[in-house]
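User: I'm new to structure prediction. If I give you an amino acid sequence, what do you actually give back? Let's try with this one:
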Amino acid sequence: MGLDQDLTGFVQRVFACPAETAEVIARRATERVYAAQAVILRAGDRPSDTWLVMAGRAQALVYGSEGQLVMLQEYAGGDLFGAIANLDAGPQAAEIKAVETLRAALFLGGDFLTLIETHTAVGLAVSRLLLRQLRETTGRMADRITLSAPDRVRAELLRMAVEVERRLVIDPFTGVTALAIKLSIARETVSRAINALERRGAVRREGRALIIISPRLLRSDFA
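Assistant: Good question. You get back a string of structure tokens that encode the predicted 3D arrangement of the chain. For your 223 residues, that looks like this:
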């Protein structure tokens, strides 16, 4: 399958639109690949373009009062960032950086807004995507208020896991440092929390993956 066909199929799945509409949308996009750690948008930029993540992950990062990195939002397959998530046209609040190799569809200028105005399916899908991002951000804020740091680690591991052959798996598990940035918790605290779960037999590392053996043990501390 060629890249154009691949992009059209991806667009059709994300926006739940007819194939003809997906082809129109795909023609307005250009595929871009960003290396891990590449900065896509800088804080203070005024983005005019919109990115649709196809594969990989990016994060919106700011520096805390003590110089530590804090993640505001994570973007994975099907997520949007850039102008469409910044409709007030104000300066970009956070730096957007690729966490791993990122493949994205780039819509220049006002092209994406035109697509929203023209195609109802696109507007509805964008509303759902942005609402999901808002729910995730609100959930993490609530966790920071109501849960201890170790409990937040356990809650996030459950949130990250997907079911594969009747097992809950995080693959790849990007490591303690990445999780610490994501949760705004000291790396040492995250490491201790995961080591404690391993000693209790609640999780196990298998290569690049982290397997959740006992979801009940992860939930028991904060349920």
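You can read the tokens as a compact description of the fold. Here is one thing that stands out. Helices lie at 3-15, 19-27, 111-118, 120-146, 149-160, 176-183, 187-199, 215-220.
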